[in-house]
Predict the structure.
Amino acid sequence: MDRETQSEAVREAVEAAADRFEAEKTHLTELDSAIGDADHGANMNRGFQAALERLEDADDEPAELVKTTGVALVSEVGGASGPLYGGSLMKASQELEDGITDETTVAFAERYLETVEERGKASVGDKTMVDALTPAVHTYKKSIEVDDCEPLEALGRAVDAAQRGVAFTTPIRARKGRASYLGWRSVGHQDPGATSTLYLLEEVFEVAAEYLDGDVEMDAEADVDPEELEEAAVDDDSGGA
Amino acid sequence: MKKLINDPETVVDEMLEGMVAAHPELRRLEGTEVVVRADAPVEGKVGLVSGGGSGHEPTHAGYIGDGMLDGAAAGEVFTSPTADQLSEMIQACDGGEGVLCVVKNYEGDVMNFETAIEMAEMEADADVEYVVVNDDVAVEDSLYTSGRRGVCGTIFVHKVAGAMARRGGDLEEIKRVAEKTNDRVGTMGMALTSCVTPEKGEPTFDLGEDEIELGIGIHGEPGTERTEIMSADEITDRLTETVLEDLDLESGAEVATIVNGMGGTPLMELYVVNRRLQDLLDDRGLETWDAWVGDYMTSLDMMGCSITVLELDDELKELLAAPAETPGLTVTEDR
């Protein structure tokens, strides 16, 4: 993919995410009202709408587009989600300065996770976005570096890992963030931050599938069978990113 | 609930507008909720900035001026300012010697400041450090924080760091005295009533007529203990004992104290509390070198108070005594 196409893909991913957050805003806010302060859906929606606006005037470099999206989220989402989502995108965008490749996306994902962990001081099992993000990033890295997967397949596996991560947030007790105050009462509720992270990954996957010439269909609500994904991705013969 | 506001949506904006109109030595950065010294950035001086949610007046912008802060960012009521606003503030207060951010330990504040510092470093190549104040001895972790909350002791940090910056100290020195102050200060608060946020228009928590809450933070977040109403002396004893236990001072130590009102308590009552506080300190052989009484870091209209004790040494005394001129605190020369 040349730079121009990469930029187009980034813009499209942000648009897809914006649409998704608009559609899921009520659902996310419902999840947040159970264990948080009931504004996550509205905040994410406002943030991504602002990102769309800011991207209109942004320079057409992939890294710049990602950074601009991050700044928009930081400015509009507020609370803790603003710095966690926006700040991490801003910081990780530096890894994309040489464009989008297998190597840079792995570095991007790792830097993103690292920033979220540092800033949120959370780790897996705390019932936060980290529960979705960590398995996704580790799976992506391993799929690319060890299993030698095509990027789309790796991304598919990452989405699947994130889904399992989200499911894992329901039965556990929150130890970080606003929900931690509820202690055991947080048990039984799905974490809104982990859920929005999954949505973002799913949209990135959809757009990647389109650009990497895959016919992979993802049903956001359905459980994804990793083997099915692998098969779908193997059919994709577009080569690297 | 009766409030002297027009619209919860515009209350912060209108407050800042009115504040700047009352204090020509302050200037608002256009299109933001950031207030800075009219002459910011001061060339050759390290910038000192702070910020956080609104509703704690005179914190934060009330401490802008010669000898204290160069800038303060106001978030929505009880909500951290966003990182882009904080980053603009940092850049506007950088006179070439760097900027120190004084951050209260609340998750939103810490995360947004950390992000803002990265933005300022990326955009303006600014040299920025930060200090997280965590003086609240009531809690280990709270609704909004990992670790202790940052509350009224922050004002001492503003004063000490501001004096060091005014004197020409470099970023490292200013950070050192700010951290030293934070290490030696403890605060504990209590509420007689809940506060009422403009948005909600009703009390944040229910407190019975004959109940009080001990160990509250500055947002009306729950305290450590709900108990029956006690006398001013009994309350002061509870707060002071917890603070002193934490600080573990030796007899003969010199301290500075703040009896801080939460916004809805008259000075009359704060002086009553101060009287008992000073007696208690005296009983323990502690010498009060300076005692402040008044509304320094409030929670809107909450009735209640907090008690802050800072252990002094010669350096901190000198910095506390140095001149400062701000809407919320004035220290004249020749103490």
In short: Chain B touches chain A through 22 residues (CB under 8 Å). The helical segments of chain B are 11-22, 83-92, 107-124, 153-166, 171-183, 232-247, 267-283, 314-321. The two ends of chain B are 44 Å apart (CA to CA). Residues 107-124 of chain B form the longest helix (18 residues).
